[in-house]
Amino acid sequence: MPELPEVESLKRKLETRLIGKALRRVTLRRADLRWPIPKNLNQKLASRQLVGLRRRSKYLLWDFEGGQTLIVHLGMSGRLFFTESTRLFDTHDHVLFDFDSKLHLRFRDPRRFGMVLICVTKELPAHKLFCHLGPEPLENSFSGDVLFLKCKKSRSPIKSFLMNAKVVVGVGNIYASEALFKSGIRPSRPACKITQKEAEKLCAAIKSVLEQSIEAGGTSFRDYVGANEEPGLHQLQLKVYGRDGKLCEVCHHIIKKITQTGRSSFYCPGCQR
DNA sequence: CGGGCGGCCTGGAGGC
DNA sequence: TGCCTCCAGGCCGCCC
């Protein structure tokens, strides 16, 4: 389940090998993902040079010369990886990107929740996927003050609140649980009951949990692998996510699992108030 | 208008 | 061992 750190790690690995390379050919093997993949990808991108890779939220943005940007979202089970062979395909290999220098990249997504779209680079900020997004959690535009002001206006449980992309982007189920553990806040607390001090602690916890995960190459809990199909290592550092029934490393209470707005949340009843 | 939830998918886990 | 059910979850869009 790729979240922000997984997409960021992937971006860093891809850019060292792909920036400046020309995309020779795009082959679309299956277009019927949840959002259909446009059939004219090859027509728009073939023989164009990749001039930049960016990440916004969990979207990977590929800027090509000629002013087109490819938008890729890994959804739940999406993978993007280099491959030697251009022949052996899995049934879930939906798009093949053949770059110069025999760099073959493959987009595989068994659950087909992912997205591969194209947009004119200049029109990206106004695109409906991007125009309502909140701040990037690792940038200065996301601060304890900003979080506190937003919290005051909402009675949603803080865990659901953090997963709302209008509040902050890129914080999914794993890192929301982990950041709340780190800041000692129960996931069920109404956002408006968070104090200024707690908002500052929570903001810092979100940043540090995400940064540590990027450092470890992301979390490979189920589906995520890196550009060379290598798993991330951050799952080894998880304190509460997926650890229900086990003992908290800090206070030895039993970690609990609850459901909030249809998603599982994990917390320590001893550490989180 | 904001928040909750259903639908989209398939693989893997767990129960019988 | 095999079949069936359930669960995972990001995001959109509908509905209250």
Residue fraction in strands = 15-25%
Query: In total, how many beta strands?
Result: 10
Q: Which structural class is indicated by helix and strand composition?
A: alpha+beta
Order the strands across the largest sheet as they lie in space.
5-7-6-1-2-3-4-8
What integer value in Å does the Rg equal?
Answer: 20 Å
- What is the CA–CA distance across the termini? 28 Å
Please mark out the parts with pLDDT under 50 across 5 or more consecutive residues, or reply none: none
Q: What general form does the structure show?
A: globular
The main pleated sheet reads as:
8 strands, antiparallel
What does this structure look like?
- This protein is of the alpha+beta class and 273 residues long.
- It contains 6 helices and 10 strands; from the N terminus they run H-E-H-E-E-E-E-E-E-E-H-H-H-H-E-E.
- It has helices at 4-18, 41-45, 144-152, 158-162, 173-182, 196-215; strands spanning 22-28, 48-56, 59-64, 68-73, 79-83, 93-99, 103-108, 115-120, 256-260, 263-267.
- The protein has an 8-stranded antiparallel sheet.
- A hairpin with a 3-residue loop joins strand 3 (59-64) and strand 4.
- The longest helix has 20 residues, at 196-215.
- The chain is globular and about 55 Å long.
- It starts with a helix and ends in a 6-residue tail after the last strand.
- 37% of the residues are buried.
- The mean pLDDT is 89.
- It binds a DNA duplex (16 and 16 nucleotides) through loops.
